[in-house]
Amino acid sequence: MSITKENAIAQPVGTTLERYIMRKQAEFPFATGELSQLLRDIALAGKIVNREVNRAGLTSIIGAMGQQNVQGEAQQKLDVEANIRFIRALTNGGEACAVLSEEEDDIIHTGNCNGKYVVAIDPLDGSSNIDVNISIGTIFSIYRRVSPVGEDATREDFLQGGRRQVAAGYILYGSSTMLVYTTGHGVAGFTYENSLGEFFLSHPSISIPTSGTVFSCNEGYWFDYPQYVRDYLMQCKRQGQSGRYVGSLVADYHRNLLTGGIYLYPPTSKNPSGKLRVLYEAFPLAFLIEQAGGTAESEHGPILDIVATEFHQRTPLFVGSSSMVNLLLTKSVGAVEQEQPVVAGATAAV
């Protein structure tokens, strides 16, 4: 149909997050509406945080609080703001019986003992970047509780393992604000339309390219990286690949998800177990990347196979295009084989 002056003013604006969730509800495990509402609660809190991020410089909430969070990291004012907003939204929504936040030491009980889900969340990843107007984000993971409904949530509800996630995603606060999530049936992305106050479907089926030309890591730690990581990065450079590193996990991950690439946070001497948190950073991003056709690994196997025993457990993370991650793993295996001790009296095979 040709566009005329009359019908040009009535072009559809797209599918809202609300409508998309309703259409896809049948794909959700145990579909009775609770998970749909939970995703809407997260989206609502994301809208509020988006507002606070956009006006941060006008409301004096940029900069550090002058205290540390449970991770021993300098706590930013926006960290506190985002933490409050998400916990409040998840509490008032009534579907989450408990929340585990990067900013808190232990489980936050919402008082909704009949809620069937728990949420692990990093309310504002990379928040120090807000002072210099660089993209930041929220990362979340949702589990169906295993403890009895009607009682308080337990540690076991959060330590089920990455493959028990029923939904996961992130919100990116950048030049545009996007919500990207999966419920185990592919990955969809939504862009926030400020004038209407709605997330609209903009990326209906996100699939990461098998390979890419971008590697993302903090090369300031070059001499602290394992040799196999340095060997891999040198190969990337010889092949003319580009180093792109914002210093905000969600921003770097999002770029590579759309265009292809690899994000690396290897172990270092300071953080031999890695720095990224398993439950509310590595697990949700690994679940999402696998649904998009990519790969997420630690030094010892797939991220989603990690057995988490602590709420704030850390891990190295290599995530992105499958061919790039697999090549890195090949170098890692080769390095381990070279380090194997020679057994006394052993003879070469003939």
Brief summary:
This protein has 350 residues and is an alpha+beta fold. It has helices spanning 5-8, 17-24, 34-54, 77-93, 155-158, 227-238, 249-259, 278-291, 322-339, and strands at residues 64-68, 74-76, 96-101, 108-109, 117-125, 136-144, 165-173, 177-182, 187-193, 198-203, 214-216, 242-243, 262-265, 276-277, 295-298, 301-302, 314-315, 317-320. A hairpin with a 4-residue loop joins strand 8 (177-182) and strand 9 (187-193).
State the share of residues found in helices, binned by percent.
25-40%
- Distance between the ends: 75 Å
Q: Give me the number of helical elements.
A: 9
Structural class estimated from helices and strands: alpha+beta
Computed Rg: 21 Å
CATH-scheme architecture of the largest domain: 2-Layer Sandwich
Q: Which of globular, elongated, flat, extended, rod-shaped describes the shape? A: globular
Strand order of the largest sheet: 4-3-5-6-7-8-9-10
Task: Count the E strands.
Answer: 18
What is the domain total for the residues? 2
Question: Spans with pLDDT under 50 lasting ≥5 residues?
Answer: 340-350
CATH topology of the largest domain, by name, is Fructose-1,6-Bisphosphatase, Chain A, domain 1
CATH-assigned homologous superfamily of the largest domain:
Fructose-1,6-Bisphosphatase, subunit A, domain 1
Characterize the largest beta sheet: strand count, sense, and whether it forms a barrel: 8 strands, mixed
CATH top-level class of the largest domain: Alpha Beta
* Helix-strand string: HHHEEHEEEEHEEEEEHEHEEHEEEEH
**What is the mean predicted local confidence, pLDDT?**
88
Kindly report the oligomeric state of this protein: single chain
The proportion of residues in beta strands is: 15-25%
Keywords: Carbohydrate metabolism, Cytoplasm, Hydrolase, Magnesium, Metal-binding
GO cellular component, one term: cytosol
GO biological process, one term: fructose 1,6-bisphosphate metabolic process
Subcellular location: Cytoplasm
